[in-house]
Specification:
- The chain is mainly alpha-helical and about 210 residues long.
- The chain contains 8 helices and no strands.
- Helix 4 crosses helix 8.
- It is elongated.
- It binds heme C.
- Heme C binds next to helix 6.
Length: about 210
């Protein structure tokens, strides 16, 4: 009788152990299958997307298998090389901002240009050409100034959009030009500078 009870107890115990073991096994299996949370690097700010992303993407290895893993946003359109003319790199139309801008703010804004440019009527050329009357003036047309070849090949006269593109990023707007100037990054600041340049340009076309 005792033997039988022992047998039954043993069987029950064995069954219990089996259940626990299977459960543990399933757990372990579960853990093995469930992917660890994939760390998605935060997308870098759009402005410096191109360089940062490349650097961040290189050492990452295989892409995360998770379909919902946020892929880094497509690289912000890099400034397009000016092909037909200087407008190619212009962002949003600047004219409404120019119309709203303060000439005084622009006059203060061109202090950084004075290392290279004069702005008074008949002022001399320095590192860069005199900028009196530049709005509405043919690109690269100041007598006696040795412009770069690229500036000389650009068609037309300086207007709001061309100035906007050139002042945003001189190097991108006219690759190979010799204005060694990083550019004015804020649209409002460029608009103020352009408003000031208009104020000293008798031949500037009217604001549209
Ligand atoms: C480090 C010197 C330097 C600074 C600073 C500089 N420029 Fe220039 N800029 C030049 C040179 C040099 C050229 C001629 C470029 C060429 O021929 O490739 C030029 C050309 C220009 C032209 C074209 C003029 C023409 O006759 O076609 C404009 C417009 C202009 N600069 C505006 C500005 C403004 C506005 C600023 C300030 C926000 C500025 N530049 C700051 C050196 C400078």
């Amino acid at each position: 009788m005792t033997k039988r009870i022992e047998k039954i107890a043993g069987a029950v115990l064995f069954a219990l152990i089996l259940i626990v073991a299977v459960d543990l096994g399933v757990d372990a299996l579960d853990r093995a299958i469930t992917p660890a949370p994939v760390q998605v690097a935060e997308a870098p700010p759009a402005q410096e997307a191109a360089p940062t992303q490349q650097a961040a993407a290189a050492p990452e290895g295989p892409a995360p298998a998770e379909p919902q893993a946020a892929a880094p946003p497509p690289a912000e359109a890099a400034p397009v090389e000016a092909s037909g003319g200087i407008e190619a790199v212009a962002p949003d139309p600047i004219t409404p901002l120019v119309a709203a801008a303060s000439v005084e703010a622009g006059e203060a804004g061109v202090k950084i240009c004075k290392a290279c440019h004069t702005f008074d009527d008949g002022g001399p050329n320095r590192v860069g050409p005199n900028l009196h009357g530049v709005v509405g003036r043919d690109i690269a047309s100041v007598e006696g100034f040795a412009y770069s070849d690229i500036l000389k090949t650009l068609p037309g006269a300086w207007d709001d959009e061309k100035l906007d593109a050139y002042l945003l990023n001189p190097r991108a707007a006219a690759p190979g030009n010799k204005m060694a100037f990083a550019g004015v990054k804020k649209a409002e600041d460029r608009a103020a500078v352009i408003a000031y340049l208009r104020s000293i340009s008798p031949n500037a076309p009217p604001l549209e």
